[in-house]
Every structure is written in structure tokens, then in C-alpha cells.
Amino acid sequence: DMSSSSPNPGSKTGTNSRPTSKDGSKKNIWSSLLDTVANGKRLPEKNLLVLGGTPDSQREFLDTFSADTSADPALANDKRKGKGKVPPIANQFALGYTYRDVLDADKEDTLARVSAYLLSEPSPSFAPLLKPLLTPKSVPETLVVILMDWSDPWTWVRRLREWVRLLRSVLVSLDDETKIVMEETMLEWRDRKRGMDATNATAGGLSNSSGPITIPLGPGEWDEGLGIPMCVVCQGADKIEKLEKDHGWHEEQFDFILQFLRTILLKHGASLIYTTPFLAGSLQGLVHSSLGIHSLLKKESLKHNVIDRDKILVPANWDSWGKIRIIREGFDMEGVSTAWSIEIQDPPESIYQTTNSAQENEHGLAEDGTSAVTTFEQTIYDPKQGTVGANPNSNSTKIEIESTDLQDFFANQANILEDLKARDDKEHTTQQAPQLEMSPMADEGKVNEHIGPVQFNMGGIQVDADDMLKKLRDREAVRTQKKETPTPPASDDKAHNQALANFFAGLVKKPGSSPRGSPSA
């Protein structure tokens, strides 16, 4: 019995040990899952508010921003195999969205997740879509990016003005708590110079035993802060050479654009960069530093560049009027800065549809010399239109267009046609018929004197062309003369009939005569 009962305790022990091991493995699985979720929640979240451009140019910006700049071919091959799938982009209508994960230099650790909100048109109707994106929690982690393109640099200042107006209208409508956070963010951005590298950051503030000492701001710096860091990206810098070759642009135009943009952006504490398609360059470093994303393995320094005209990089808090003035003498920074502060106070308008009152207001500002947009467009205009101050109202990308009433259009065209008809009739009555002059080539004798004899070879026989033409003319003259020889006139019908009557009358036997050879009675 004992031997038979001895396996039972062992079997019980074995059966009890198995559930214990399963429970332990379940606890390990749940703990790892919870740790993973916790790590995901601790991942820094950043926001990009991308304004302007087209859906294609917005995709190009995001591709350049998330491009793999690693020099390790193994990491690049892993990305090609699908380890780093690119999230889709929904930016065809209204407010678009996508996200990008910022990886460390070894492409293993994720430094932050960047949510990108995309908007193409500065229409006041889209303001309610932007307001929920700006909260006390999101404002310190948000960067506004305004996209421009070198295909139409003459519209840059007008577009930038409308975007700033739209942002101001949204920021003013926020609650007080968000406004306080925005003010703190601007103070941090301005004083700590978060958008620059460590070496340049120390240049803006000095420290001593009593604490940090901030250098006073220069003229035109930070007097129109928006409350959110801003960066202007001018895409398609490879088109600069085309403007120079095809349209005759010179260094004066490019310097004027650069001085104008830097003067405006200096007032908002914004940065400026020129980019080339699919070349990351310094764009990644500028956006990462502006969002406070720093690599743990690779230290990157952001260096300014104002020499290469297709690789311009002006970080925030670096520029000043003195640096702008040395580009080219004669630029009125004071006038542009003052005019810009006045213009951005107005409510936003559509860059494609300008009301009559807005046009009159802008025209009045232009006469007073206080319109920054008009000042810019008088110097930088569309070379294809050939008019100074070309207005971008004719852009074909607008969604809605205004048209006149059909009957009004027909009535206007009828008046135009009547005027043209009256003008044609008047010109027809007053204009004399043109007198055709005799051609000097009509004198054949003079021509023959200059040309001389003409001969050609026909079947091995040398033929004189003049002699041949003379024979042909003589033959044609003889043939024509024969045709023109007069024929004798036809006899009279009566005479002809009389002759026939006489002929038949002679055949009739006379009375009393007998036929020839008949016997006599």
C-alpha cells in the first residue's frame, strides 16, 4: 500500500508545480506589456504646424525632414526592407495630418514622435481648425513652419502676411491660461536661445555670481512675437539659377528678397532656411533644435549660412539689423519694419480674392509708403506678366472663382462688338484703296540682259532654252492664226431652197411629152 500510495504525493506535487510555472510566465508577460505601454506614454510628443505650400510640397518637406542621413549602409538597407515604414499623409482637404518618429543616430531608440498638422490655404474659415491644436500642454512643444517656393518668390511677403494675420486671429481667441503659457514659451525661446547650439547660446546671455544677465534686444527684434516659435522654409532653391538665366534676375533681386525676409522674421524671432528637394542639409537640425529634440549619441551644431544663396540658414536669435545691412547698402529696414507692424494688425484675407475696400486701403498705404507688401512687389514681380506689383489673384489653385452674370457679360460683349464694327466701318470709308506698283521684273528685256543665255542638257544634247522657247512661241502663233482664219459665209436659206426646187422641177415630166423610147400613137 505504501509503495502504491507513494507515487500519489509525487503526482500531486508534479501537478501543483505546473500551474505555478504558468502563473509566473503570465505575470512576466503582463509586466513587460505594461512596461512597454508606460514607455510609449513617456515618449516625448512634439507638434509641427505646417502652413502653406501644396500637398506635394508638404510631402516633400516631410520626406526631407524624416530622411535617413545615416552613413551606415546596413541601417539604410534595413530601412529599405521595411523596418521603417512611412505613415500615410492625409493632406488633400482642409487640415491634414500625419506623424513621424524621430530616431537616434543608431536608428534604435525613438527620441520623439512628431505630429504634423498640414494646412495649405490661409483662409479665415480654417481658423476654428487651428484653435484646438493650441493648448497649455501643446504650445511649448509646437513649431510653426511656413512653406514658400522659389517658383513664385514675388508672392512670398503677401502670403507671409496673411499667415501671420491668421495666426494672430487664432492666438488672440485662446483662453488666458494658454496665453500665459505662450508668453512663458516666448521668454524661454528669446532668453535661453533654445533654437541655437550651445556655443552660440552663451553669446546671448552672460552669467555671474548674482545670476544670468541678458543682453538687451536690438532694434526690430522680438517686437511682434506670436507666442509660438516659427520657421520659414523656402523650398526649391535649385530654381534660383533658372530665374537668373531665363528671366535675367541679378544679385540685387536675390539680396533684396533675403534682406526683406530677414527684417520681417527678426520681428517675430523666427528662423529662415532655403532648401533643395530631397537634400536634408540643415533642415533636420533646425527643426529638431527648434522642437528641443537632441540626440543622445551624436551632438549636432547648427551653423548659420548667409553666403551661399541656395543654402541660406538664419537661426532664431542670431540675426540683427547690422548683419542685414551689410548685405547691400540702401535697404530701408526701418520703413519695412514699421510698415509690417501696421499691416499685420488687420484681419486675415484670402490671398486670391481681395475686396475693393482692402485694395483701396492697400493703395492708400502704398501712396504713403507704409505698405510692406506693395514695396516688395514693386521690386520683385512676376517676369512673365511684365507688370510691377503683380497680384497673385490669378493663381489657378484657388477653389472658388467669381464670375459676372451671364446677361451682363453678353451686354458688355455686345457693346464691345458694336464699337469694333463702327471703328471698322470708319476705317473702311476713310482708307484709300492701295495702289499696286508695277514690278520691276516686268521688263523682260532688262532681265534677259542680266541673266544671259540659259542652256540645259536633255538626253546628252545641249539645248538652248531661249531658242526652244522661241520655236514654241512661233508654232503656237501659226496654230492660232489658222484657227482665226475666217470661213466663207453660208448661202442664204431662200436661195438654197430655190435651187432644190428647180432641181426637182426639172425631173417632173412636162405635159404632152412622152417618155423616152415610148412608141408613138
Automatic annotation (TrEMBL):
Keywords for the protein's UniProt record, in alphabetical order: ATP-binding, Cytoplasm, Cytoskeleton, Dynein, Microtubule, Motor protein, Nucleotide-binding, Transport
Cellular component terms (Gene Ontology): cytoplasmic dynein complex; meiotic spindle pole body; microtubule
GO molecular function, one term: ATP binding
Top-level taxonomy: Eukaryota, Fungi, Dikarya, Ascomycota, Pezizomycotina
Compositionally biased residues, Low complexity: 511-521
Top-level taxon of origin: Eukaryota
Pfam families xref list: DLIC
Major localization class: cytoplasm
Compartments, record wording: Cytoplasm, Cytoskeleton
Official protein name in the record: Dynein light intermediate chain
Ranges annotated as biased composition (Polar residues): 1-19
Start-end of Basic and acidic residues biased regions: 472-496
UniProt-listed PANTHER family: DYNEIN LIGHT INTERMEDIATE CHAIN (PTHR12688)
Annotated GO biological process: microtubule cytoskeleton organization; microtubule-based movement
Region of interest (Disordered), residue spans: 1-28, 421-441, 472-521
